[in-house]
Amino acid sequence: MRTNSLLPRLLIGAYLVVFFGYLLGPLIVMSITAFNSPSFPKMTPWECLTFEWFDVLARDERILTGIENSLIVGVGTVILSVIMGLSGALMLTQIWPKLRATYYTIVIAPILIPGVVLGISTLVFWDRISIMLGMSTGGILHNGIFLTILGQSTFIASYCMLVFIARLQRFDTGLTEAALDLGATPVQAFRKILLPFMKPAIGSAAVLAFLASFENYNTTTFTFGKFPTLTIELAQKVRYGINPSISALAFIIIVLTIIGALIHEIYRRRQQLALANGAPVAAVSGGFQLPKIFRGNPAAIILVLLALGGASTIWFSQSYSPGVCKMDVREQKRLIQEERIKEIRAKRQLELQQKQLKSPDSSGDIKSDAPVTQSPGKGAFGNVFDPGNLDKAAPKSETEKPAESPGKGAFGDVFAPKNLDKATPKDD
Amino acid sequence: MTKGVDVDLENVWIRFGDFVAVREANVNIKGGEFFSFLGPSGCGKTTILRSVSGFLEPSDGKVRIGGKDMAGIGPNKRPTALIFQNLALFPLMKVWENITFSMEVKGASKAERRKRADELLDMIALPDQGDKLPSELSGGQKQRVAIARALCAEPDVLLLDEPLSALDLKLRQHMRTELREIQQRVGITFIYITHDQGEALTMSDNVAVMRAGIIDQIGTGHSVYNDPATPFVASFVGENNVFRGKIKSIDGDMALVSTNRTGELLARIATSAQGKMNVGDSAMMFIRPEACNIAEDISPAANRFTARVKHEEFEGQIYNVFLEGAEGKEIKMSLVNVGKQRQSAEDNNLTLEYMPDQAVVLPAGELASE
Lengths: 428, 370
Description:
Oligomer: heterodimer
Radius of gyration of chain B: 24 Å
Number of strands of chain A: 0
Order of helices and strands of chain A: HHHHHHHHHHHHHHHHHHH
CATH architecture of the largest domain in chain B: 3-Layer(aba) Sandwich
Radius of gyration of chain A: 33 Å
Number of helices of chain B: 9
């Protein structure tokens, strides 16, 4: 039995590893690169723990305005989508039953239409309207924020509506009738009965709308005008090459998401736990009871640890300076460099001596050996210090090229980018 | 407390498309009365209630409350309060907020509302429960909160839409007495909807029995039970044995019916049918199970009939004896348990007798479906 079940268990284990690796791997790699000092996001080789990319991020005007625009658009979209979604859902409950299916199809259609199409049509439509109204091109109807909010809301409102419909299906219309019967006006009945009932759904719809708006690219790309959102900025940045400040941003977003999810989970578990223990509903939905959280609630403990970790990270980042480490790395590299230079010099001297002292026949033998021992050092540094020498050496080392390149790539980049430009065509 | 006011339905018709839910309803409910609409589900009694509370406008006819025509007046402006079948307590509000909702929408202060809620909670014997949520209360408690909420609005008319149907039997019986008590204390008009004839008979001053949108009979519980106006009322209110046949002779308010299977039987002509029946008319005769008895003298007579016993049932305070009747139907006889072991008569013929004035003759008509 045991041997039989071992294989499937291993397979399941392997599958889980692959699955979670696939899901979380990129996020982890991205997060790690945010703390590595090389200026291109990479995890290996690990050089120095650094927080400079957060600084770079904080100083990047384009990213910051992008975030700002995203937040403005997000808030606008949330407000507009929640209102439209709620009215759409309420309409569905009021409409003549025979029309209900048709109406549902119509209002749900924006979800099925590609975002690109929505973006273009939003742009074109409001442009037409603007022209019809005789407004200037600088007017509100050409404003990027306005258009982006409208464009995103066209389909995000439908998402919100789905959330509201699900909640409304559990609403007892008798409650509204009871309120009316007790003398409430229809507005009072809506405000005091239906709206409180819809509150959880409004919350989830708002979160959903905000996230959908924040991450939207394909609709926004047509409508943003002079107000690029974060996704637009990121896409533009990637086109010109990136540095780890983007990883830093990713890390911040990941952490915020995890904290949000944990808070939600804690809240949910606490309610469940309390209800399961027969606590009155009023107590559960009431005030925040801190001590209770920690009893048998790992999520809470994790959150506290995370908060502590965050605080200590901030403190650490302020007191710790990666400068020392960077100096060390530089020093280390310089030492290696120097050693190699010495080696090369020594060899060159040796060669010279051999040329001078020994017979021309024997010098030929040595020469043929030389590229093999020299090549790693020479590839990387030879051109730095003695380009003239390289010219001679290069044709010889052509056969050695594969062996050379890693060394050259790594160090040539860092220490002599200009020389690299010259070296590359020659090596090729 | 407010004195109840009259509620009048004048020639009320309510239609939904081609479907007629209520047909020509004429009802006069006096102020301070406990009035019930009794009928099977789907007979239009809830529709009538909704037209009184204002959720429906009658297609035709008039609804008057306290003599005032209610046409065009919304539910929130009528002096009525409705207790819903599912109670419709606001789940997100505390009990006291539920009770005083009608004051809240009028802008009463919190202290004022709290005070009134405590008074009403005392009245419904739920003191100190005001800060709970409705979901934390038991069925009977919710019931009482719903009543308190409706009374808090100080209505002239309280409408109750089968409010006891969700409760278990014991609680239902208890709430019946309680409702009646509350009604007598506050003195307002109660209009009660039910399909349970027990509820209607025990609580009401007057009962309207409805069938498929038509009010068949309005009267006290006693008259509805003992002197039904139609075969439907006779068969719907309480249990009844029906005998089909033709009128053989009429003598004053008594008629001799020649039944299809059990011979000629004598019975009283129902008040509503008196003077309207002729010899030879097809008729239905009804005898209540408790009106039957085992005959001492088995010689044929106009108030005796013989049938074969199919099976018997012991129910505690009564024995039920089922006999073979016409058209495959059973005749039920209920005998009071007087403490003696009864000799089973299964598969034997048994002769029953009854008091002729406890049996009712009506023109043949529609019966209540089982």
